[in-house]
Specification:
- Strands 4-3-2-5-6 form a 5-stranded parallel beta sheet, with helices on both faces.
- By secondary structure, the protein is α/β, with parallel strands linked by helices.
- The protein is globular.
- The protein is built from 14 helices and 18 strands.
């Protein structure tokens, strides 16, 4: 079996599972946020009415994070958060982060909720981020999540396996974001539909924790059920510092596992990449769209809002000024990252350059608040999606790039690469 199959088999209480098999698994951790909690709660209450079970299966295994509209930007968002607070109090769910701690996919690893070898289900499509830590993590809708709240179980079709091997070294101005954009550009938005992607190769083995999170975060943009990477030394050290008892089991693939599909990439010659409107797989070398006017530059999201990302941008923005036609919005992925950036002087660099630094959260990524695009406006963003209307008006356009390109473009007022 591969890593994913071994984790699923353990969760199902079976010695072995095969691709295509439909099974029931025990869930180790369930996560919802301020946008998906109320519909989950509503469905849970319907289940309670029919079954008489009025308590969640295990309040200690449920985590709720306010991140999509924090602080609430309208009456509806405020009501959603009120409903969620009351439910958490009623159900004695203590793991609720409601004071701007950050984006769920950053907060959960930071707070020690993510363990290798576990099954994690989140009511958010980018739950696959946790595969960076060797966990099976995937997103589901509110109905499925309500059943998990009630029973602690869910059903899965064991996904077919895909191995992506990466070799080579990153060149200047090229990052893990460029790698995953390149892969998506080659395989397409439906190239891995309901498959389990296992990343391997010398390049992957050497990636830092933030880089691994960026890679796994965007696997869903290929339609994947999950992305997963076997933990390296850096990942193990990160986990030991944050897990309560520091104990976990790492699963590795059997050497004779026959993957359904295998792909090989060498990044020695990879250039900075950009996903152009309005599809994540519309990927081109950044040099082919140089000079494209922008109105907004966004640095943040669960893809690239970590300290390493902020540091890369700060190195570009130091002693520079953001172009007069551009608003640059910077949103750290968590309060922990925000405080570190403050301590290291990054926030001062951003403000001196003319950027708007907002509280931790999802911010402009989903077009909710803190940077909504108007008709005809163009944004270059470190986020993960550039669908039509994703960040605001349907006539706006979004380009996806790494933090270096976003920062340099903010200075120039057009898509640009540092010389």
């Amino acid at each position: 079996m591969n890593i994913t199959e071994k984790i699923i088999a353990k969760a199902a209480g079976k010695k072995e599972v095969q691709a295509g098999e439909i099974i029931q698994v025990n869930v180790d951790l369930a996560m919802t946020h301020d946008g998906t909690s109320p519909p989950t709660i509503q469905t849970f209450k319907k289940i309670a009415e029919k079954t008489g079970q009025k308590r969640v299966w295990n309040p200690k295994k449920i985590v709720i994070v306010y991140d999509h509209n924090i602080p609430p930007n309208n009456i509806g968002a405020a009501e959603f958060q009120k409903i969620t607070r009351e439910f958490a109090k009623e159900q004695k769910i203590e793991n609720i982060f409601k004071h701007g701690e950050g984006i769920c996919h950053q907060v959960l690893p930071e707070k020690g909720f993510i363990k290798p070898g576990t099954v994690i289900i989140g009511a958010d499509s980018h739950t696959c981020t946790y595969g960076a830590f060797g966990a099976f993590a995937t997103g589901m809708g509110a109905t499925d999540m309500a059943m998990i709240f009630a029973t602690g179980k869910t059903w899965l079709r064991v996904p077919e396996s895909m191995k992506i091997e990466v070799e080579g070294r990153f060149q200047e101005n090229v990052t893990a974001k460029d790698l995953i954009l390149h892969i998506i550009g080659k395989l397409g938005v439906d190239g891995a539909t309901y498959k389990s992607i296992e990343f391997t190769g010398e390049t992957i083995k050497g990636l830092s924790v933030p880089e691994r999170m960026t890679i796994c975060n965007m696997t869903v943009e290929m339609g994947a059920k999950n992305g997963i990477i076997e933990p390296n030394k850096a990942t193990i050290e990160y986990l030991k510092k944050r897990l309560p008892n520091g104990k976990f089991k790492i699963y590795t693939p059997d050497p004779n596992h026959d993957y359904h599909e295998e792909f090989y990439f060498n990044i020695d010659d990879l250039e900075p990449q950009i996903a152009c409107p309005n599809s994540v797989d519309n990927v081109k070398d950044a040099k082919s769209v140089l000079g494209t006017h922008i109105d907004e530059a966004f640095l943040g999201s669960c893809t690239n809002g970590r300290f390493k990302d902020l540091k890369m941008a700060a190195e570009i923005l130091k002693d520079e000024k953001i172009h007069e036609d551009v608003r640059m919005i910077i949103v750290p992925a968590s309060s922990e990252i925000y405080l570190k950036a403050l301590k290291k002087g990054l926030i001062k660099i951003f403000i001196d350059a003319g950027a708007i630094v907002c509280n931790p959260g999802c911010g402009p990524c989903l077009g909710a608040h803190m940077g909504v695009l108007g008709p005809g406006e163009v944004c270059i963003s470190t986020s993960n999606r550039n669908f039509q209307g994703r960040m605001g008006d349907p006539k706006s356009k979004v380009y996806l790039a790494n933090p270096i390109i976003v920062a340099q473009s903010a200075i120039k007022g057009e898509i640009s690469i540092p010389e």
